Amino acid sequence: MIEIINVSKWFGQLKVLDNVNETINKGQVVVICGPSGSGKSTLLKSLNGLEPFQEGDIRVDGISLKDPKTNFIKLRQKMGMVFQRFELYPHIKVIENITIAPIKVLNKPKAKADKKAMELLERVGIPEQAEKYPGNLSGGQQQRVAIARALAMEPDIMLFDEPTSALDPEMIKEVLDVMVDLAKSGMTMAVVTHEMGFAKEVADEIIFMDEGRIIERGTDRSFFENPESERAKEFLRKILI
Amino acid sequence: MLNYDFKWSILWADPYGGWILEGVVTTVKLGILCCIFSMLIGVVIGTFRITQFKPLRIFAEAYTEFFRDIPLLVQLFFWYFAVPSLLPEEMRIWVYQEIPDFEFWIVVVGLSLYSSSRVAEQIRAGINSISPDQFNAALSTGFSHYQAYRYIIIPLAIRLVIPPLTTEILTIFKNTALAMTVGVLETTFMSQQVEAYTFHGLEATTAACVIYMIITLIVVGAMGWIEKLLAVPGLIVRKGANS
Amino acid sequence: MNFEWQVISNNLFFLMGGLVTTFELALIAIAGGLTLGILVGMGRLSTIKFIYYPATLFVNLMRTQPLILVIFWFYFLMPLILGRPIGGFTSAVIAFTIFEASYFAEIIRAGIQSISKGQIDAAYSTGFTYWQAMRYFIIPQALKNMMPSLITQAVVVFQDTSLAYVIGLREFLRSANVVDAREMRSVELYLFVGLVYFIVCFSMSQVCKKLELKKGNA
Question: Which end of chain B is more exposed for a tag (fewer CB within 10 A), N or C?
Fold first, then answer.
């Protein structure tokens, strides 16, 4: 579980995260939405230490990110991340993309890693792409490989940074289906997204951010049908046409 | 109009043919040495340019700007004429008398340093074209910084940098021609030597042109073969900048 | 090791004369190279085989040659074609114009290609001919887009003029060399030459950077 305690972050003079407080419990799916520049991605990337922050603390399963003794490598093994632009390694095959971290970081024997990788590719629906290179896959396929790659490390928490924003519309569903399946299997997830259909289906909590602050929280029903703040109302008006 | 007595046979006549051949050997030696040194130095300077450590970065930027804004010929003249007079008396005597082919080696120094700044620039451009989230993606799966560089960033950077480096190797070989101005007996020098003895400048110079063409074809062919070895299906390689 | 900087001030007039020649040569070469380069660049995009192949051959041929050799080549060739001896400056101008044109051509070609087809269609649909469309719309836009690359190439031409040394042209480097032969003050002289080149080229590259930034924000 993740505890975000009074976190603030500045880029020079600009305050990008402003006293953010939040708790994500085990098995919960939290959706973070808001206009661009609101700090959503920055918040997500602070959770696994990719973005440092100046004030406050984040505790992942009790381990404080501010503790100088914290082993970030071990921490990140427990947290998988999926990026907006997929970020598959273009110079190695799909299956190698998935197995490279288990082999190099967890010292898994290649045969075991390959077997697990094929299972994951089956789970995301594209086992036949294993021997291809990322450049030959469609965006939706690449993103599914990216999810498999993150799952290969057997994380407790999965972080998604606008996973469908760079996809052509007809490919969004195939990726969301994988994510819904993952949520229903009990994975703890923090998802930055505008896909409200996804939120409605599996989100336990929806956080609306603007200018680095959490403006509003709600369950899917309360947030979509009865947003309290003006900003949230405006935002929903714009994206829900 | 063309009132000229073409005599192509001088090109293979003795001793002129031999001179030209000697020149080609020197050009190739010079080219290969400068390629090796400039790559080695260039990789170091290139990594300085992208490092987080500010003093190294500033040094590397100044280095690149310095070599880029002064003509190569001026730099070679400085190395050949000026640098020896900066040395203390005994070193200068040693340099002029003890080192065989001083002019050859001083051109190696000058051309390697000049080219290394260009190599550094291409390496910087190649590495910068890798999106920062590639690095983040590697870290997020539990790679250490070192592992991320070793397994992801550097192999990728090598593939991105090879095409512009091909152009750079060609440029280095062409730049070896400037060595003639300080008396290095390479291809261009020899072609003018033949001209001086036979007055058939057009034939001699054309021969040199053909030789450089052949060198170019060989280098382009070799680099193309290397590119094929490293090629990854579907990898979109950033187009190299105009050299 | 003592420096005698007065060798520069003593010979300043002579050295500056060389610098003027350098600028003259550079400006003519840039103007000529750019003009010829525009034509060759357009030729590289032509669908007429008769134009495309010679243009492509020309560009690819020039790229295999060291400039210094091309200078020698024209130095020998021009008197034969014209039937009479020719000055160093003139043969240098011709060599530079033709050589640098091949590099300008590639920049222009990329510039023209970067202009969306929509622009060309728009021009045609309002009744302009190919040449008019090129002249009034495509080329000006291509030049504007490619300004940083063109300036960079102009700086290259400026530096390349030092190679005219080999045919004895009294440009800046050769002037310093002449003074050096007489006064034996290589360090001061070549530092001076390097400094002047650096100031000119560095300023131009800064102009380039500003242009690129502006383009990025446009």
Answer: N
Distance of residue B163 Cα from the nearest chain A Cα, in angstroms: 16
The DSSP line for A126-157 is: -GGGTTS-GGGS-HHHHHHHHHHHHHTT--SE
Q: Are C191 and B81 in contact (CB under 8 A)?
A: no
Distance CA C173, CA C50 (A): 42
The CA dihedral of C185, C188, C191, C197, to the nearest 10 degrees, is: -90
Mean pLDDT of C110-136: 83
Coil/strand/helix, residue A206: strand
pLDDT tens, residue by residue, A31-81 = 998 888 888 999 999 998 899 999 899 999 888 988 888 888 889 999 999
The Cα–Cα gap between B138 and A87 comes to 9
Which of B141, B156, B233 is closest, CB to CB, to A153? Answer: B141
| Type of residue numbered B234 | G
Q: Are B124 and B46 in contact (CB under 8 A)?
A: yes
Is B140 within 8 Å of chain A by CB?
yes
CB pairs under 8 A between B and C: 122
Task: Quote the CA–CA distance of C180 and A235 in Å, as a whole number.
Answer: 74
CA A106/CA C62 separation, integer angstroms: 55
**pLDDT tens-digit profile of A100-115?**
999 999 999 999 999 9
Q: Is the peptide bond before C66 cis (omega within 30 degrees of 0)?
A: no
Residue B56: CA count within 13 A, CB half-sphere? 10
Query: What residues of B are in contact with residue A50 (Cβ under 8 Å)?
Result: 136, 139-140
Amino acid at residue number B112: S
In degrees, rounded to 5, the angle at the alpha carbon of residue B93 between the alpha carbons of residues B88 and B96 is: 120
Question: Which segments of chain C does DSSP mark as H helices, in order?
Answer: 6-10, 12-44, 49-63, 67-82, 88-113, 117-125, 130-133, 139-145, 147-160, 172-183, 186-217
Choose the closest CB to B136 out of A50, A80, A146. Answer: A50
What span, in angstroms and rounded, lies between the C-alpha atoms of A158 and A26? 11
**Amino acid A240: pLDDT:** 67
Helix axis angle for B102-128 and B154-175, nearest 10°, is 140
Residues of A in contact with B133 (CB under 8 A): 83-85, 87
Segment C133-152 shows an average pLDDT of 86
DSSP letters for B204-238: HHHHHHHHHHHHHHHHHHHHHHHHHHH--TT--PP
Q: Which of C64, C155, C193 sits opposite B212 (nearest CB)?
A: C64
**CA-only gyration radius of chain B, Å:** 22
The letter for the amino acid at B140 is S
Cβ of B127 under 8 Å from any chain A Cβ?
no
pLDDT attached to residue B241: 29
Q: C37-47: per-residue pLDDT in tens?
A: 999 998 998 88
- From A50, A106, A135, residue closest to B232, measured CB to CB: A135
Q: ipTM of this model?
A: 0.88
Residue A78: how many CB atoms within 10 A of its CB?
16
* Chain B CB contacts of A44 below 8 Å: none
* Rounded Cα distance, C160 and B153, in Å: 37
